[in-house]
Specification:
single chain, 139 residues, mainly alpha, Endonuclease Iii, domain 2, 7 helices, 0% strand
C-alpha cells in the first residue's frame, strides 16, 4: 500500500492543527510530521530555511565514503562527519555538489573515474586501481 497519500493528508492536518498552517523550520519539528524522516527534514531545513544542515542520501553517502570525507557506516555517521568537516556556510552547496557528483560521475555502478577531477584524492579510485593492477599482474 502507498503511504505517501495517507502521510500527505495527515501532514496537512497536522500543519494546520499543530503548526498554525506553517511549515516548521527546525528539523526536530519537521520529523514530527508523518512521513518525514531525518533526510527529508534536513533537505527542507536547508533548502527552504537556509539552515546549515546536510542531508545524506544514497549519493552523498557513497561519494563521501569513496572520497574519504567519512568512514561512517550509517547515514547519520556520515552526516555527523560532514557537519564537523564543512563550515556552516558551505554545507548547502556541499550537499548539492555531492549529490550531483554521485549522480553523474561517481555512480554506484561504473563510476567514471577517468572523468573525475577528484580521483587523485579518492580512496575508491586508488583502491580499485591497485586491485586492477594486481589482477593484471597475475596472469
Amino acid at each position: 500500500p502507498n503511504n505517501k497519500s495517507k502521510h500527505l493528508h495527515q501532514m496537512a492536518s497536522m500543519l494546520v492543527s499543530d503548526f498554525d498552517s506553517k511549515v516548521p523550520g527546525d528539523t526536530i519539528s519537521l520529523q514530527k510530521l508523518p512521513g518525514v524522516g531525518r533526510k527529508t527534514a534536513n533537505v527542507i531545513a536547508s533548502v527552504l530555511f537556509d539552515k546549515p544542515v546536510i542531508a545524506v542520501d544514497t549519493h552523498v553517502f557513497r561519494v563521501s565514503r569513496r572520497l574519504g570525507l567519512s568512514s561512517g557506516k550509517t547515514p547519520l555517521a556520515v552526516e555527523q562527519d560532514l557537519t564537523k568537516n564543512f563550515p556552516e556556510s558551505k554545507r548547502a552547496i556541499a550537499h548539492h555538489w555531492l549529490i550531483l557528483h554521485g549522480r553523474y560521475v561517481c555512480k554506484a555502478r561504473n563510476p567514471e573515474c577517468d572523468k573525475c577531477g577528484l580521483s587523485v584524492f579518492c580512496r575508491y579510485y586508488h583502491k580499485s586501481r591497485r586491485a586492477n593492477l594486481h589482477e593484471g599482474s597475475t596472469g
